[in-house]
Structure formats: structure tokens, C-alpha cells
Here is the input.
Amino acid sequence: MNRLHLLRLNNCILAVLLIVAFIKPCSASKIENAPGICGSGGGRIWIGMNSSWNPSMLGLKIYPDWSVSLPSFGLAMGNNAYSTAFLGDYFVEGKRLSDNDVNKILSEISSDQLNLNWHGGVSGLGFTYNGFGMTLFDMHTICSAAFPKDVFELVMGGWEKDKLYDFSDVSTEYYRYWTTSFSMARSLPTTPGFLDELSVGARLKLLFGIEYYGLGNTSGYLQVTSDSVKTDGLMEFVKSESGAGLGIDIGASGWLSPLSSYVGVTFGNAIGSINWSDVEIDENRFERHNGVSLDSLSNRDYWNNFFNESDTTYEAGSKTVSLPKYLLLTLHRPEMYLDGRGDISVSIHQGLNDVPGNSFIPKLSVGSTFQQLPWLNLRLGMGFGGIEGFELGGGFGIDYALYHMNFGASWQRGVFNGSKGFSIALSNSLYFPSGYQPVERPKKPKKEKVKKEKSKKEEPKKEEQIIEEEEKLPEDTGMPTAPSAPSGMKALTLADIGLKDMDPGQVLCAKALYPFEDNPVFYSVIKSEKYDKFFKDVAEITGTALMAEKIIEAIEAGNKDVLAMYKLPELTAESPLYTFCTETLPNASRNATTLITTGNQLLGSSRRDFTGLNARKLPSVIKGVNGSVNNLKTARDKIDELVEKISTYIKTNGEEEVGE
Here is the structure.
């Protein structure tokens, strides 16, 4: 076999390897609620906090009540030696490789092996609802191959006298399967002090194997001496066309208050394997320990019997293949820069077993999303480590009304034509948000302790102690300060409901009429003027109703401290409560009716008002407006009842005594 034939054979072998690595069907999984691109793996590009990686995301308040995942795909492929540009320069049709070309090609395999990795797939219809999720069909394919450098040195450079070529490290594995998965997540009622929300979840995956091909036991060597060819080898080809298994993903996520960020941890494939049945093994053995007959080189029968070969096929029962097991840590900081239009995502992916599609090398990824237009998000990210090595990627997302589309792509081990692999993924989904339930941050023990001490100070109060103690109120009223208020919310004050003279800090504030000690009233800050005004107006009416209720309680209980301080028996115009009782309270009832109409209008326009990056606020806003409208109806009825009680009280206690 001359040099030209060897070079042509080499080209054929490499072409076959590339085809095997690239043409198999792929699989992807959905990419939902996508902030910044973080990296790739499993044919999917990590995009911030993502329920397709972490099932507990379904239990967080930011996740829409229900959604539908449309067909999506993803693909990741690469190698550790050859870039796109290099393959184009050296492996073109009809090009004759010189000795320098061969040396250059071999030198690109920096390690002892050429490794090829390929994984991806296609997902079908899926849906989520109120913390539950189901994916009906999700196809996955995983492929990896490793070839020792000796193979390429022999094929491309020809054999070197007396050199021992070792082929024992050849390995390939390819399998394809599909899954049906069920997810469930729930938010926990209590959380640690540093978390304001905590959700846990799990995903159960039913695995159905389609086909498996791989190498079993392999060994072999070749040595050419001056008088003989010595070779001995064994290669087992393993095949199966059916399998079944079970997989479980476990996750937890929540809001980390010290960093104002969402955090998550996922234990992927904590349980995950496929048991392939009806396994068939084709065992091939070959050997030769004799010299070469120069006179017989032109005889075809001589070459057909050059090696002593045996080929045996037999049934081997079953074979279990473990899925890639990993630990994924994620952190997403929303609205971090550019006036809330940009966010940051960070992830660490640690493989926990050495199987195709996985690596013990940890991967650190960082990504960011920038809202270019109300409906368009631009993304950029990079990763370091893992089977992809260095990775640089970008993408975009389209958030239009209920439809969300996300696309991402990245280069591996280089950029542009200098890269040695790439990843690509696209997802489509429909979100149907139906509202919001604000995250109520747990009260810190220190705050509760202060309140208990304050209540103890009130117990020894005697009837003759009235105004003197009011000087001490500003420092122990229990009024929530900004740091203790929930994120994105502000506390209501008495000044907000028309009682400036009774606001904390003024000596006329009476504890018995201070409605915020036991029931703090907050209002949301959405960073949208009309929504912020709506939520504040609703809170003012709620506070007004609560204040009026406290007044009635004081009157009916005959609280002498309060009655004397505000001259309630006479209810003169000099009392700070007179205007509140006769004007503010009736106006609040009329305002409640107007605000109910405003709330219904906001519900109709919210999907147009919150698009792009702000679309993540939409579930919160809708639920907040819905809840506010319902609360307004209740508050209006209560206020009307209290107005009637106060009117009766004024008439009973002599309205004629009211000053001019």
C-alpha cells in the first residue's frame, strides 16, 4: 500500500468520523423564562433561572400560573483538536497532503486522544400549571468517541519500523432515547432568615430507549519489524434497540435577600439510567505474528488471509447505561444595571460521573440580558471549563404578548472559524399569567422582640397618664423602616391617609389609634407611574378603612386616653379626627368605586404595558391588580358601614357643639 493510498484512506476515515459525529438526530429541551445566556450542555443553553434545568422554579411567585411549551430544539457538538478553519484548509477534496501537512495535522492533537462530543435533541408539547408540569415528548441523543493518536499516526504517516502502536484506548458510545416527564414544585411556608422565598421541586422522567451502539472490550497493537508484522486485537461491537429506565431531577430555588437575587441548586439525574435489553455483541478478533511475502503482495487471496480473524455474534442479556449526573448552581440578579433593563446570571456546572455528555471538569458561566426594545431582549454570555472548554455565546428573545421565543448560539474552544465546536438552541412557549401573590418577607426576630418589649411598656399605663407619654412614641411606634419592608414595596404612613398631624414623629400620635403596629400596610412599587399610583391609592383606602375601624373600637370601648386626647366626646372641629371622619372617610368610599374601574382598565392594558424584560413582572402585576380590585370592594363596604356608625355617633353626641 503506497503513500497516496494511505493518504486517501486517511481522508476517508476522518470523513467517516466527522459524519458519525455530526449526522445523528439531536434533542433539545425547552428554555423558559430566560434571563442571560450562561453556557451550554446537554444540547441546551443555560439561560439564567430556568425550570427546564431546575424544577423548583415552578413554585416561585415569578413563574406564570400556567404555560405551554411548543416544539423546540438544541444541539451541541465539538472536538478537542480541529477548528472549522483548519478542516477547511487541510481536508478539501482533491488536495494532496505533504509531509509537513501530515505533521501539522498530527500536532493539532495536543493530548494522546482525539475526542468528539455530540449531544442534543428535540422536545415536543409540554405544559405547566400552578406548580405542576408535564412534557409529553422529549427526544435526547448522546454521542462521544475517543481515538488514540497512534491511529492517526499509523494511517496518515505510515508505520515506523519497530514502533509499537497501541489501539487499546479506542472508545465510542451512541444512544438515543425519549422521555415523558412530570414536574412538581411547592413554595415552603417558612424560610431561613437570608431567604425571602424558598421553593423545592422534583421532576420524574420515564425513559424509553430507542437504540444503542458502542464498543465493549477493546484492545490491540501493531508492530512492524524488519522481518515480521506483529498484531493482536479484540473489538466488541455492542448493539441494542430497546430499553427503559427512570430519572429524577431535584431542585431548590428562592430569593436571596442579601444579594437581591434569585438562587437555585439542581441535582440533575440524581437517579437516572437506562437498562438496555436484548443486547447483541459482535466480537471481532485478529492477529498476525509472521513476516510478509514480497512475492505474494499482488495476490488478492494473500491479502484476504493476511490476518487470522474470527467473528462471533452472541446475545449478552442487558446493559445499564447511566445518564449524565450533575450539580448545577445558579444565581440571577434582575434589573441590575441600565435602569433595570439589564440583568446578570452566573452558573456553576459540576459533572458527577464520567459518561458521554458529561465531564468532571467544572464549568463556570456568566451571562447578561439587555432589553433593547420593549419586546426584544439581547443576550451575551461566556463559559469556562467543562467538555466545551472556553465558550462565547449570544442570542435574543422575543416577548410579544403571550408568545415567548428564545434563541441562543455559542462557539466552543475559540470563536468564528477558529472554534472547535458550537451550541445552538431555540425555544417557543406560550405564557398565560393570571396574577400575583406578593412575597411577604418574614419578620426578623429582632423586630419581634422590640414589639414585645414595647407592648410590655404599655401594660402599666394608668388612667391619669395621658399626654405625657406621647413624647416617647416616635422611637417605639413599631413603624416599619425601609430596610425591613419587602423588596419593591413601601410602607403606608398616616400622612398618606390625610392625618399629617398624627403621623409618627408628631406628639399627637396615639398608640391606640396607630393602625400599623399589628397590621403593616404596604404598597407595591412597580416602577411604572400609573401602576405605582394605583397600588398606593389602594393602600391609602385600605389604611383609611383600618384607621376608621380603630376609631370606632376606641369609641365603643370607651378608651379614656384616646377620647380625652382627641376630644372625641365633643368631636369639635379642633380635633384632628374631625375632618377625617366627616370628609376623608366618605371620599374614600367614592374613590374606591373609581379605583375599581381603574383596576379593571389596567388589567386590560397590562399585557401591552409589560413586555420584553419587564414581561417577568406581568404575573405579579396582574395578580396584584386582581387582588386589589377585590380588596377595594371589601374596603368600600366596610367604609360605608363605618361612615354610618360615625355619623350616628356625631349626631348622638351633639353635632351642634361642633365649632364654627
